[in-house]
Design goal:
Elements lengths: L3 H11 L16 E15 L1 H4 L8 E2 L6 E15 L11 E12 L2 E11 L2 H11 L3 E11 L2 E8 L5 E8 L11 H6 L3 E5 L4 E7 L6 E10 L15 E12 L3 E2 L2
Parallel strand pairs: 5-6, 5-9
Antiparallel strand pairs: 1-3, 1-12, 2-4, 3-4, 4-5, 6-7, 7-8, 8-11, 9-10, 10-12, 10-13, 11-12
Length: 253
């Protein structure tokens, strides 16, 4: 059965491609999601410190000679497979990822150290079909007085994030060559499973970013991955909403 509402949402998005660093992937997309109230919090990390933490098959991507570690809290909704309805209890939940940036085969992308999710079924599916390091966590994301209050505590190991964040400037797309563009305009993820490198491609419009401020009460999700965050203030960007299409994981050539 066709879903005209979803088709109307996806078709225009597939035509917004001028910003992409390479063409849309071959073959059909398999999942759509909407990301809400997302904070990009980034810290510089020396290349020598990052290299042992990332599989050797992946080349580290740097900006002005530095690697960057990101702690990214947000929430998702409208999660559904192509041609399928959103399933009650499975289509919306918070997610928190810890990541850095890599390249492989000429395509710059994201490498995840961990992804916490507030839905056990989603954790199982992402581990099974995308070979990603997902963890089940008790999570909450709510807006109070213009700020997003966010908390996450991992059931396995207890890695925790708790804080609040808010936008402090108008929304705008960042120009190519800026660090904000470099950190956010990434159209694939990489994972290494039993030796080979796999790539998962995504598509979305350019990120509508806003400068942000944040207070972190607890943040141990990076150290749980072996990353020592510097004492310098992080680079902070906020995005209210973004529609995303996802393709199946494929072995990278």
């Amino acid at each position: 059965m066709r879903r005209p509402g979803l088709d109307c949402q996806v078709r225009p998005l597939l035509k917004v491609v001028e910003h992409r660093p390479w063409p849309l992937p071959a073959g059909p997309w398999v999942m759509t999601q909407t990301w809400h109230d997302l904070l990009f919090a980034h810290w510089p990390v020396p290349l020598a410190a990052m290299r042992p933490l990332v599989p050797a098959q992946l080349a580290l991507d740097t900006f002005d000679g530095q690697c960057w570690a990101g702690v990214i809290p947000f929430r998702m909704s409208g999660i559904r497979g192509r041609g399928m309805p959103a399933l009650p209890g499975l289509s919306r939940f918070p997610e928190l990822n810890v990541r850095t940036y890599v390249t492989h085969g000429g395509k710059a992308g994201v490498y995840f150290f961990s992804l916490d999710a507030g839905n056990l079924s989603a954790v199982w599916a992402a581990r099974r079909f995308y070979h990603l390091p997902y963890f089940h966590a008790a999570m909450s994301s709510k807006e109070v007085g213009g700020s997003i209050r966010y908390s996450s505590r991992r059931f396995q190991g207890g890695a925790e994030f708790r804080g609040q964040y808010r936008a402090v400037a108008e929304e705008r797309v960042r120009e190519k060559g800026s660090i904000e563009n470099w950190l956010t305009e990434r159209y694939c993820l990489y994972t290494v499973h039993e030796g080979p490198v796999y790539r998962g491609e995504i598509h979305h419009a350019p990120w509508p970013l806003q400068d942000a401020e944040a207070e972190f009460e607890t943040n141990t999700v990076a150290s749980a991955a072996g990353i020592s965050l510097t004492a310098t203030a992080p680079l902070l960007q906020f995005a209210r909403r973004l529609e995303v299409l996802i393709w199946p994981l494929r072995r990278a050539e």
